[in-house]
Design goal:
The chain has 7 helices and 23 strands. It is an alpha+beta fold. Among the domains are: 217 residues, Thrombin, subunit H (Beta Barrel); 51 residues, GMP Synthetase, Chain A, domain 3, CATH 3.30.300. It is globular.
Amino acid sequence: MRRSRLPYACLSALLVLGGWTATGTGQATADDSPTKAPAKASPAPASEGLLQAMRRDLGLSKEQAEKRLAAERTATALVPKARKAAGSAYGGSWFDARSERLTVGVTEDASPATVRRVEATGAAVRTVEHTARELDRAKARIDRLDAPSGVSSWHVDPAAGTVVVNVVRGERADNDVRDFVSRARAAGPVTVRTVASAPTTFAAGTVGGDPYYTGNVRCSIGFSVHGGFITAGHCGGVGQQVRGWDGSYIGNFQGSSFPDNDYAWVNVGSGWWTVPVVLGWGTVPDQLVRGSAEAPVGASICRSGSTTRWHCGRVLAKNETVNYAQGAVHQMTKTSVCAEGGDSGGSFISGDQAQGVTSGGWGNCSSGGETWFQPVNEILGRYGLTLHTA
């Protein structure tokens, strides 16, 4: 990895490419089911920089941020146990920031024994109308519909027990939008919500920073894998050459998918190497990556990118279909984290656990917005890659 110009190069050097690590924004794709077992979350204390970022972006004190991170680690570990305990009555799960506990939905027909098994895991229980399987099937039927540009995205909201269809403000009266919503309602329980604007990808023209380049497009590196790094698919096609922040040759896109998915991987050579680090940009210390345990809805999450650097927020939804101008991308995770052009492909991380690569969104880091990422375990499974961990 060629890099020497940053004052924190000693840690950056742990990263794949010279400054690439967790920076970036790109579109992310999500695979249906991860094929690699996520590593256990480490109880290592959070850095001062991370706590400061959570204070800035989430409005938490240092003590509140430390308590939140500990509770989220516990909740993340509980998800598979609680889902198994709920069995066929499982209605989804999410992290409740107020109680700082994992909440699990179970249907009304769940037996008392089932409820007790779920509670025994340490999760809170809430009665819901629909199972997670029913909601997922409804969303899958909506995925088969052609969506007009006035429809931003749609996802399952387990807490509300519905599939949420997001419509761009001012477009709800459009005939094509109304027709789509009507057909979506026929697919299952649907709630329509309004969003500020349509989503866009976060690739950008060539500018300075610590990015990687394909032609005149700048994106950000996501996570190191053995043999290369993963990033967003909309940043480049198979065979395209990739250059680093210093203009030197890194490698080529070995796999890429967009739309439908938004993920890719690039091989690394010519003096570059991989390391399990996400760049903190001096805002926070560079973050070691120790696994890829999936954080639940409601958990805090942070993003590193070559344009806006380090920002934090919350996981808002999973398995969301995002309707970009280039086509729909499926199984994305939505967050309240901001991003801007050039952040595409960059890292989303929760504690020391890799979550995904930046895809796109709306808004910016001055006025706020929402950003989607492609879950990392899906990308690893799709290409048979192994995450480089500390």
